[in-house]
TrEMBL record:
Keyword Oxidoreductase listed: yes
GO molecular function ontology, one term from the record: oxidoreductase activity, acting on the CH-OH group of donors, NAD or NADP as acceptor
Sequence intervals crossing the membrane: none
Protein name: Leucoanthocyanidin reductase
Coiled-coil boundaries: none
Family: Belongs to the NAD(P)-dependent epimerase/dehydratase family. Dihydroflavonol-4-reductase subfamily.
Amino acid sequence: MAAAAGDGATRRKTACVTGGSGYIASALIKMLLEKGYAVKTTVRNPDDAEKNAHLKALAALGPLEVFRADLSEEGSFDHAVAGCDYAFLVAAPVALMPENPEAYSVSKVLVEKAACAFAEENGVSLVTVCPAVTVGEAPAANDLTSVGTILSLLSGDDAYAGALEHIERATGSIPMVHIDDVCRAEIFVAEEEAASGRYIVCGLNPTVVEIARFLAAKYPQYKVNTDRYAPMSWPWFRDFPEKPRVCISSAKLVKEGFEYKYNNLDGIYGSVVEYGRALGILPY
Ligand SMILES: NC(=O)c1ccc[n+]([C@@H]2O[C@H](COP(=O)([O-])OP(=O)(O)OC[C@H]3O[C@@H](n4cnc5c(N)ncnc54)[C@H](OP(=O)(O)O)[C@@H]3O)[C@@H](O)[C@H]2O)c1
């Protein structure tokens, strides 16, 4: 980072990360603290000791302040962002399986448009980071959004597996990225003065068929149902191709100098199975 932890000559930079009880935010807070930032984070309920236990542990890595803030309360983030060099706006209601399957995607577009309009009106420099389905271990040990989905073929959770299949139907593949690469990309575009506009962060575009085969071979103890995608299966499942119809590109980010650490299924799934066991999503 530009300024290391202060010795008088250099100033420790301060970053606000909203939604510190969440999956991606908790990993981003950890990475920022490890890089020498002072971090301010927000949660809706600072008194929830169980949900915020990881924040208490992360405070051992560096200066970490926790504020109460709710997106539905105008001005409630003002204290947390005041005086910060960067604000990472990560808090958002995430519903991967709403009644209307398009609702989540539409909400993301509307939020991004509103943020861009606000930034332009108020002279704020805004860069948008759009991660693919995020995979990997994080400090937060709550019921986490994408973790249940990407582990669904191992856990046998049909509802989450349906959410995974919906992503492939809607997108043409399962665009994936490791959580470390998401956090590294967030910090990369924040620190890079020339960064502007929006950046897609996607390390890999496998199909659900490729993921099912990979997991079945690597974790035979979980009995992945690869027959679900076999040519003789129900018509509903038969239309899953071997190879992606569409690959999401993050060429803009790479062209500007970002390097992915994880770009294959082995690396991306890495320690997430162990994490899923610790969260109770998978049996030991
Ligand atoms: N995980 C992925 O694969 C993925 C992929 C692409 C984009 N994203 C985006 O990345 C962001 C974080 O996702 P995530 O997976 O880390 O989700 P998450 O674990 O559910 O975290 C979301 C956070 O937002 C907070 N939040 C929800 N409603 C709020 C409100 N009204 N006011 C203030 N805070 C609120 C939650 O706080 P509480 O603890 O108070 O509920 C939670 O800490 C979201 O914008 C999501 O759409 C995620």
